[in-house]
């Protein structure tokens, strides 16, 4: 199951809507081994395409060095589909190289750049096997501390 | 030339889980041959044959001292003592 806070969820959706009709992409980094997506990092789609996405190689190196320095890993790797459902394409499956990541797919096909609900789904993709998982959107992390 | 090679998560099955391994060679190509000798199978994941010539796979990025080797001579890129080689799979899809 993917647990993601409302704020990060909404930021991914907003990015996808903004970049529609091109695909939007990015990661949510979190402490290594924690499975907690905490740091939203929208990336530029170097392909600027409605049917393909790719992180720019220079941005990719910067991102991974940064995560390495912070003891983070990409807990979520997200991208949007702009004309099809939020399900990994054959290309997505073939190129998935992060066995620990939750691959989040957002589809903007219904409302494009406008307000309105979007499909937001999450998958594990390991060795070409796709497994959909439940998405649990939780309140923002800044919860009030318990009273003592 | 002794270099450090940073290994991405997906390829750590070849390096017993190590994030970085020692490399050896005067060019990236030699570094990869040396890697293959110690971690059999890893070369296949990095290099493919294009028009009969070995070349880096399209969706594998390799950097020597933060420079993308696609702009510095690909597999022929020279490496020096103490250089850092970083391997990162592309994050891409359709």
Describe this structure as you would to a colleague:
The complex is a heterodimer of chains A (about 150) and B (about 90). In chain A, a hairpin with a 7-residue loop joins strand 2 and strand 3. By secondary structure, chain A is α/β, with parallel strands linked by helices. The N and C termini of chain A lie far apart (about 30 Å). In chain A, the strands form two sheets. In chain A, strands 3-2-5-6-7-8 form a six-stranded mixed β-sheet. Chain A has a two-stranded parallel ribbon with strand order 1-9. Chain A has a single domain, classed as Cytidine Deaminase, domain 2 (3-Layer(aba) Sandwich). Chain B has about 90 residues and is of the alpha+beta class. Chain B has a single domain, classed as Ubiquitin-like (UB roll), CATH 3.10.20. In chain B, about 15% of the residues lie in helices and about 35% in strands. Chain B has two helices and eight strands. In chain B, the strands form two sheets. Chain B has a five-stranded mixed β-sheet with strand order 2-1-7-5-6, covered by helices on one side. The radius of gyration of chain B is 12 Å and the shape is globular. The relative contact order of chain B is 0.25. At the A-B interface, strand 4, helix 2, strand 5 and helix 3 of A face strand 7 and strand 8 of B.
